[in-house]
Amino acid sequence: MPNNNQKPLDKPSTNQEIREVTIIAARSKNHVIGRGDEIPWRVKGEQKLFKELTMGGCMIMGRKTFESIGRPLPGRDTIIVTRNAAFRHEGCECVNDIPTALKLAQTKRVPIHFVGGGEIYRQAFDLNIADVLHITTIQTEVEGDVYFPQIPENDFSVVDEKRYLSNIDYLYERYERVRD
Fold first, then answer.
1. Which one, of 162, 164, 165, lies nearest residue 173 by Cα?
2. Which residues lie below 8 Å from residue 77, measured CB to CB, with a gap of 6+?
3. Largest CA distance in the chain
4. What pLDDT digit, counting tens, does each position of 20-42 carry?
5. Which of 137, 121, 116, 175 is nearest to 46 (CA)?
6. Which fold has domain 19-177?
7. What are 61-76's pLDDT values in tens digits?
8. DSSP string, 141-158
9. Strand partners, 22
10. What is the DSSP pairing of strand 170-177 with strand 132-138?
């Protein structure tokens, strides 16, 4: 059942190989994903999970998320979505909207990952384009100003979960789209 009665964006035509589109996020128990331009926690091992999930794929992110990282991550393509037409960064491709980013990512023939920030996640849910969600919930509540949107319960179900013990424990959950 699509969100907000939104028709899903077109996937590649049948003569192209279809790649899984994922959303990858780490959030606190109160759904905070950012404070200013920083992640408001330091959790041992959580970044390793992100690297394992994204390596060899194409990451789509907003400009603020990219600026908080500061550089393209090795072993992954980076597409930056920004309203600033003049923004450019060596080693990255820049576009002005998510549909354009998705079409560009599909040409790379690798897994596609939406990796933040809050507005990019919200639009990805509104456009109904993700097949899989990789959600890490850091087992703490923090102050912040960027939030992960509510997961559309009718569209996704948890198919796997794993608890990690660390300096701050965290829960990884894999959600898959519910098919009619």
1. 162
2. 57, 58, 59, 93, 105, 108, 110
3. 47
4. 899 999 999 999 999 998 999 99
5. 137
6. Dihydrofolate Reductase, subunit A (3.40.430)
7. 999 999 999 999 999 9
8. ----SEEPPPP-TTTEEE
9. 113, 132
10. antiparallel
